[in-house]
Amino acid sequence: MLPKLKIAHMLPRIPVIQGGMAVKVSTGRLAAAVANAGGIGTIAGTGLTDAELRSEIQTARSLSDGYIGVNVLFAAKRFSELMLTALREKVDFVISGAGFSRDMFQWGREHKIPVLAIVSSARLARLAEKLGAAAVVVEGKEAGGHLGTDRPIAALVPEVAASVRIPVVAAGGITDGFDIARMLRLGASGVQMATRFVASRECEAHANFKAQYLAANAEDVTLIDSPVGLPGRAISNHFTRSIAGALRSKIQHCDGCLKHCSAKFCILDALRKAVSGDTQNGLVFSGEFVGRIKEILPVQEIMDRLVAQMEQAFIPEHSTP
Fold it and tell me: Is Nucleus found in the keyword set (predicted)?
């Protein structure tokens, strides 16, 4: 029997949360597919309008009666509006990345909806627990998108699990069921996976975006200096090269999407370009081990394979086939 992940009222059959990838990579359709397959689905709210977020939540609800939540980047200027929209739509949970605040946990209590925080250290995990987090997602250096640490997930999970009483969800570089089993053995209650679900049929990112994932090798993954103020992991392309070094390109316009922005480039514009198919002039975030993913599969098949691999990993060494 697989280990169980329980966060507030949520008790999924499979201890997997699908990561919320913005902009419009983790949509309602993808979240619903993961929920239907026994995991927890997440819609990325960052970069959406309130109406667009409501639409994505309603789409997910029309396709699934499983667990559906919303991820919003705390660094986004419209964080509070988007979080409150998600709470009013009565999602199963809200998760915040790139920071958190006392207010967001209070809003969750008022709406009786669990709030999760993405953290990168035991200190931040303890603070999130103190403020009212229902669980923490501890993210290692292997993750895609914005990074809060240069430490590997295998080093962080035992430290965080020993420092808090709430569930600990491991994230970063997890691509198969054997990786999941390893994280559970290290003390995690479950895992969050994002990169693996981009290469799914239900992901609504452009075919060119998915093709970048399938073609990428280890040497194609790079770090960028994001205007959010954190390093970010992405697939190397014309855009990442153009923003590097002294010859980086000038910002063409600003959407005003961040609370604090370095103005190196417009991250919202860069993410929108990539997900729409312009993968040379846009930003293609991915995890460190994207090169291990070589086929696009239905979400159900991805989840079935994860379960089979986990079950294989948890067979006692002394048992015989």
Answer: no
